[in-house]
Write a structure and sequence with these properties.
This protein is mostly helical. The chain has five helices and two strands.
């Protein structure tokens, strides 16, 4: 990405090349995922708590919604963006306090493992949710 920098004197113009690296990509991801999360989270709250009565939220309600793949995809997107945004923010906070490169490398590996396991585990739960079984479990059968 090239950025043109000039001062008030129009004779001084130079191009600055900003190199892409992991930290710049993580910075841009935090900004874009934050916007996406606001849209997804506000939409989720609106649909679950405002358009539907909060007193009727139950296993049957979730089973009815998860009978549609659209709701599963929506909830999965919310899960993925929330987890990756949160883990990346946690990683940034840890890097402010932990200055040992080796320790941060180990922590980053552990955070990635936790992120992948959490997304796979929760994604499997969402994708394989059987609305009929959820209804039967809610009714105590």
């Amino acid at each position: 990405m090239a950025t043109t920098i000039s001062n008030t004197d129009s004779r001084t113009i130079r191009n600055v090349r900003v190199k892409a690296n992991f930290e710049r990509t993580a910075f841009m991801f935090m900004r874009s995922s934050g916007i996406i999360l606001v849209i997804l989270a506000v939409g989720h709250v609106m649909l679950q708590l405002i358009f539907n009565n909060v007193h009727y939220l139950s296993v049957e309600f979730v089973a009815e919604q998860w009978s549609s793949w659209g709701w599963k995809v929506y909830d999965m997107a919310l899960l993925v963006f929330a987890l990756t945004h949160g883990i990346n923010g946690f990683r940034n906070v840890l890097e402010d306090y932990i200055h040992n490169r080796g320790a941060m490398k180990v922590i980053n590996i552990l955070l990635v493992i936790f992120l992948v396991v959490s997304i796979v585990w929760a994604g499997y739960a969402i994708a394989s949710a059987d609305p009929a079984a959820m209804d039967a479990a809610a009714l105590g059968q």
